[in-house]
Design a protein that fits this description.
Structural class: alpha/beta
Helix content: 40-55%
CATH class of the largest domain: Alpha Beta
Shape: globular
Number of domains: 2
Strand content: 15-25%
Largest sheet: 8 strands, mixed
CATH topology of the largest domain: 2-enoyl-CoA Hydratase, Chain A, domain 1
Length: 615
Amino acid sequence: MNKGTNPIMRVLKGAWSAIDTTRKVVFNLIFLLIAIAILGMVFSSDEPKIADTTALVIQPKGQLVEQLTAKSFDQVIDEAQGNAIQETLLKDVIDAIEAAKDDERVEVLVLNLSSFTGARLTKLQDVGEAINDFKTSGKKVVAMADYYAQDAYYIAAHADQIISHSMGGVTLEGFGRYRMYYKEGIDKLGLDVHVFKVGTYKSAVEPYLRDDMSEYARESNKEWMGDLWEIYLDDVANARGMKADVLNAYAQDIGQFIKGANGDSAKAALDSGLVDQALTRVEMREYLIGLVGEDEETKSYNRVGLANYLKTIKDDRFGRTSKGDKVAVVVARGTILDGSQPAGTIGGDSTAALIRQARNDESVKAIVLRVDSGGGSAFASEVIRRELEKAQADGKKVIASMGSVAASGGYWISTSSDQIWAHPSTITGSIGIFGMIPTYQRPLAEHLGIRVDGISTAPLAGIRLDRELPAEAGEIIQLMVEQGYREFLQRVSDSRGMTTENVDKIAQGRVWSGVDAHAAGLVDNLGDLDDAVAAAAELAGLGDDYIVSYVEKEQEFQEKLVSQLMAKAINASGQQLAVATPVARLLGQIEKAAADFSALNDPNNVYVLSNIETD
């Protein structure tokens, strides 16, 4: 009898098929229920309950940024595990503080800075101004942290009370500029890095040509870092009600201060007047309970966190649905790359598309380009600049507002504007250009015995990274770099009403602080984003009745889900991220340098890129 017709086998097969089908249905139902639960949690619009007397807790995680970086699900998991840089949107922090100023339920603003890893000075100043404005309401501001690094202390200095953990303290390390230099390593590997540049101070390529910082770069860096350090000391001293000299003395000789406190860093900060109290976490909690009352459920002080509090703000914070005349804000943050790029990186095509969207919107009367970039692709920079130029030709007023960094390509895209605004502590300039192509034919031949040979009908057909760069190719790239520099000078000349000769004198790849850039004529006015928006509205004749609308790339469903999940996870856990070990940080720096280099995708291999990171 054929086994396939055996009744027992048929029954068994039927039973197994039923079991397998049931299993699949059950697992699919479980997955569906989980998905529904997650979606319900993510898109829930329920407002949190806020006590009549409460504290708004601003607890920034990671870095403060102008624009959140778009993340994949894998990157979100890495971030949750402490393996990626976490970010907090600057606008979220400022909007929450501004709303809390007039919220009768919020009696105290708590700045919990233990999980804050830092921000450039312009962003710290924006938060500081928001805190100062909040204090005009007569409400109390309390800063607390296990330990205050320099950036966290800037924010804390604006509080009425600064509380450090009893085993904490304050570190003021000043500003430094240290980089890895690869020349000796490149030589040992037998690599050939072909560099083509214009600009005496264009130091972005120095690590591939030298083993140390050039005197030109040292001179430029010392100048702008000195400006920023002076601004930092003055701001903190004024906020704290102490002398800048005292802060500087602490920074210059912190070891002696701690020695004088018998190794107790918290006592050293307390004795120096940098903090008001040194408490344990239990004592901090009890102190805050005394200010706003106790939550009966959590047995902690009455509080609402940033994410939950933002849900209670009914206004269209980003100006996307409100009707009326608008000033559109387009944020350009990150390295400038060719093509379409996700948020957190500037794409020639994608950023130009946002500008075009604003240009074609009849309700938009002016555009503010918020630049936070050290540059990148010269080609992509020109694509963006041309779109701004077209907006001007169509009658839109255009303002460039420089954030922490607007250097090299960041300055290039700012030139097609009616006005350029910068913070005093903005890092800008770096008007120079370079090209770079590495080849590795020598190590292939010397260590692996691999050689490349062939024939072509024209010299450029033989350009490969595993072959020596043809002389003709090097000459062409150098010519393109020199022409790019001339174009850069002309762009600045046309924008600033200067001769190209005078622009060249302050260009040459040199980096300037906002203060010095203003004095040199590279920017029109000193001020923050709000000042730039107000100037744009004035130029467009809008008066005081206008809407500030942020124009951003529409997120895909998956991106929305990922970002919402991350926000929920952060809000639920409230935990500080794991701190990477020194070895992990070193490897991360090397990996980041390699990733940044490999991401550069200018079609002509020509870059307007500074050596200053955005964040």
